[in-house]
UniProtKB/TrEMBL annotation:
InterPro entries (alphabetical): CheY-like_superfamily, WH-like_DNA-bd_sf, WH_DNA-bd_sf
Species whose genome carries this gene: Qipengyuania vulgaris
GO MF, any single term: DNA binding
Coiled coil start-end: none
Keywords associated with the record: DNA-binding
UniProt-recorded name of the protein: Winged helix DNA-binding protein
Length: 323
């Protein structure tokens, strides 16, 4: 049975039907996006290629912008950056489909709008992305679906739900009984100088050498030879380990590389990265040589937390790692 994803028409607070702009160079994908957008209750404001939109034939931007970008040359990157700026100012939401080869260039374009970026998505994943947008519109009702369609939607949304659940409530810095970081209070020693006392704290731990962290990563990956890899899927920790090793090696990490290190599908890895940036665990760093690109790194507080973790398990900058 063909799934019916149709919603009732969606309206804003003023009673106007929400509009959508669809930009796609691949005709089959553009056709699917149009069908799904209409089924979701949006009014099609524009449906054209990226080049046509960039030519200025239409200056309007919908409440939702769906973009299919398989290749990101200089002209496309410039257009995406403008869309990000316009959406960031207007409040429009953006969903971008791209390929693994173009991920770094596309990711670097979106810093203001909070765009959903999908990597080599299937049609169902695009529908789910539209559904996440509709989730913020009140009083919507999804038509009844067959049981197998319900199960399909449940599986597709499960990963997003897990990310939100595991990272819910995380915030930068320290919080009593919660938060992204939990630190023990540093001990203090006192040195007597005549009648005066000076308090000095222990030197904060440093990250171990990158190759030692890499050995931990390799040991984690080795489990997949003997067990189902999904049993040990922990993308957040794999991301932290990879970035810790890169920090120790003074090496920059691209988004594409980090998605691979996460050990999950690229779109899922990208969601984890975005959530961890929002939680203050990671930071987005513009490429100093190419402002259209961005790298991901550990926040300074996260570096300290990772160093304390390695010290707690006996892996320090001074000690050898025993695997």
């Amino acid at each position: 049975m063909q799934a019916d994803f149709s919603y009732e028409l969606v309206f804003d607070s003023a009673g106007f039907q929400l509009a959508i702009t669809i930009l796609a160079d691949r005709e089959p994908v553009g056709g699917q996006l149009r069908e799904d957008a209409e089924a979701a209750g949006f009014r099609i404001l524009e449906c054209c290629s990226l080049d046509e939109f960039a030519s200025g034939a239409s200056g309007a931007l919908g409440d939702l912008v769906l973009v299919d970008c398989a290749e990101a040359d200089a002209a496309v990157v410039a257009l995406l950056s403008r869309l990000d700026m316009r959406a960031g100012k207007s409040g429009a939401q953006i969903v971008v489909s791209t390929t693994m080869a173009s991920l770094d260039a596309v990711f670097g374009c979106f810093a203001m709008s909070g765009a959903q970026i999908l990597v080599d998505p299937c049609r169902a994943e695009r529908v789910i992305a539209i559904g996440r947008v509709l989730a913020h519109v009140p009083n919507l009702r999804l038509r009844e679906l067959a049981e197998e369609d319900r199960l399909m939607l449940l599986r597709l949304t499960e990963q997003v739900g897990k990310i939100a659940e595991r990272l819910e409530g995380l915030s930068p810095g320290q919080r009593e009984g919660g938060g992204a970081f939990r630190f023990e209070s540093p001990t203090q020693t006192f040195a007597q100088q005549g009648e005066e006392y000076s308090a000095s704290r222990e030197k904060p731990p440093q990250l171990p050498a990158g190759d030692r962290i890499r050995r931990m990563i390799q040991a984690r990956q080795l489990r997949a030879r003997f067990f189902d890899a999904e049993l040990f899927a922990d993308p957040a920790w794999d991301i932290l380990l990879d970035l810790a090793a890169a920090k120790s090696e003074r090496r920059r990490v691209s988004v594409t590389s980090l998605c691979i290190a996460a050990g999950v599908p690229a779109t899922t890895g990208l969601r984890w990265i975005s959530q961890m940036v929002d939680a203050g665990l990671l930071v987005r760093i513009p490429d100093p040589h190419d402002r259209r690109r961005a790298h991901i790194a550990l926040d300074d507080t996260t570096v300290d937390a990772m160093a304390r973790y390695f010290e707690a398990i006996g892996v320090t900058a001074e000690e050898l790692l025993a695997v």
